[in-house]
Amino acid sequence: MDERDLDCLAGDGAACLPLHAVRPAEEAALLARLPSGAAAFLRQTGWSAKSGALALLPGPDGLAGAVLGLGEETGPFVFGALPFGLPEGTNWRLEPGGYAPEEAVLGFCLGAYRYTALKAPARAPARLAMPDGCAPALAAARAAWLVRDLINAPANLLGPEELAEAARALAGRHGAECEIIAGEALESGYPAVAAVGRGSARAPRVAVLRWQGSAAGKEAPLISLCGKGVCFDTGGYDLKPSAAMLRMKKDMGGAAILLGVARMVMEADLPVRLVLRIGCVENSVSGTAMRPLDVLRTRRGLTVEVGNTDAEGRLVLCDLLAEASDEAPALLVDAATLTGAARVALGPDLPALFTPDDAVAELLLKSGTESHDPFWRLPLWKNYDSWLASGVADINNTGSKPLAGAITAALFLERFVVPRARWAHIDVYAWNDATSPGRPEGGEAQGMRAVFRAITRVAKGEMTAGTTG
Q1: Catalytic residues
Q2: Strands 303-305 and 395-396
């Protein structure tokens, strides 16, 4: 899949109108410095600097500018409605104010996204001139557009092969290596991944991207990422109701998000060694599909009883995590649209974070808060570990009780990670159910900016020694 240009950026030298973004404490000063007619217009129309309040300013020759109220809101999203709230075809420049320009640029670009591969957009966004120092914001926006495009692609156009090729294309653009494992090599090296994908006419694959920063030596921190790439999930023989399948093209959201993280790491040329693994499969129903109570082999050597064929994502991840954790990375992160239970607990906007390492938790939680891309930590509660017991295999892929499903899924994954690994599991929704500023309905790169910020800290040696419990 080709990357798209951000069509919300004003060209160099374009004539731009002023865009004032102000907080309530700055409102009086703004009115004092605007031309008297524009100030009177704002007063008479009742505009105030509350969050998201947008007004166009008249001038003697037509449109003279615009003002946006910020309220007390911080972060990028208050700027997210501007691309389609400002008139089509107009160019804008940000006036100085009590906000961070890079957050304004990020919010503007996130709000300008729409999925255009199959249908022409109703209108073009307004365009923003780039202030100095905002290249990282543009990199984050471009990565988010890539992630959203991947998640929004219909499953008939993005299957296991196409998702793996997206990893190869990303590697090619950034001078990385990418190996795609399929066939007999997949069966022997990633048997659980192969078992999940065996029911589909579209063969499963594992894509492994390897990259090293230009300033990274052989002792540079190893960052390992593992993504669930289930391109469509029927549930298998434990078939989902039809209504529950309507968004299952997004079940590769974890893989897409970590592709976005990898893009940001490589574009920033961080001094790290990076390995990204994504398991690219389709969970389908056929005579070759895995059945309830089948027992599967895994890369770690553990046997898994299939308590439910719809708990396939953890089977995809377990082989990837086994291989990744054996390499002793400085930080190992997996991301997956893994459980509905996490959404019941935290809702659609807040990914669940699991890690046995308090320092890793602090790193990711702080990075999420600072990047306005938050997580919420849930426990790897050991008392529930026995719920994964099987009478015929080493472990069952589902818990024996209809409770704490996100926790038991994380406990399952932990069985495949070497002890004391600096590992975190992120259970994401990867979707916006409705459009809000900066968050258009559809695929979403949840956690991407937070994980990238955490990796930059690891690259700088800022992660403390772990406390594993």
Answers
A1: 240, 314
A2: parallel
- 397-to-75, 141, 274 alpha-carbon distances in Å: 39, 36, 29
User: Which residues neighbour 433 within 8 Å (Cβ) at sequence distance 6 or greater?
Assistant: 348, 441
Number of structural domains (the chain) is: 2
Residue 219 lies in a domain: yes
Domain shared by 147 and 125, yes or no:
no
Do 54 and 145 fall within a single domain? no
Q: Which of 171, 330, 332 is nearest to 266 (CA)?
A: 171
What is the identity of the amino acid at 212? Answer: Q
- Residue 9's identity, in one-letter code, is L
Q: CA 314, CA 304: separation in Å to the nearest integer?
A: 11
Q: Does residue 468 fall inside a structural domain?
A: no
Token pair 């990028």 is found at 76
- Here the tokens at position 393 are 């295999």
Residuewise pLDDT in 10s, the chain (469 residues): 678 999 999 998 899 999 999 999 999 999 999 999 999 999 999 999 999 999 999 999 899 999 999 999 999 999 999 999 999 999 999 999 999 999 999 999 999 999 999 999 999 999 999 999 999 999 999 999 999 999 999 999 999 999 999 999 999 999 999 999 999 999 999 999 999 999 999 999 999 999 999 999 999 999 999 999 999 999 999 999 999 999 999 999 999 999 999 999 999 999 999 999 999 999 999 999 999 999 999 999 999 999 999 999 999 999 999 999 999 999 999 999 999 999 999 999 999 999 999 999 999 999 999 999 999 999 999 999 999 999 999 999 999 999 999 999 999 999 999 999 999 999 999 999 999 999 999 999 999 999 999 999 999 999 876 555 4
| Structural tokens at position 225 | 């990422």
Give yes or no: residues 28 and 80 share one domain: yes
Q: Give CA separation, 75 vs 96, 108, 293, 434, 447, in Å.
A: 16, 11, 48, 20, 15
54-59 β-sheet, strand order: 54-59, 62-69, 17-22, 91-94, 127-128
347-to-66, 167, 221, 255, 430 alpha-carbon distances in Å: 35, 29, 34, 21, 12
Beta bridge partners of 377: 353
**Interatomic CA distance for residues 226 and 277, integer angstroms:** 5
- What Rg value do the Cα atoms of the chain yield, rounded? 24
- Residue 2 placed within a domain: no
* Cα 110 to Cα 83, 138, 328, distances in angstroms: 9, 10, 35
Give the type of residue at 312.
E
Residues, the chain: 469
Give the rounded distance of the alpha carbon of 248 from its chain centre: 16
CA nearest neighbour of 312 among 285, 331, 333: 285
The amino acid at residue 405 is G
In a shared domain, residues 214 and 163: yes
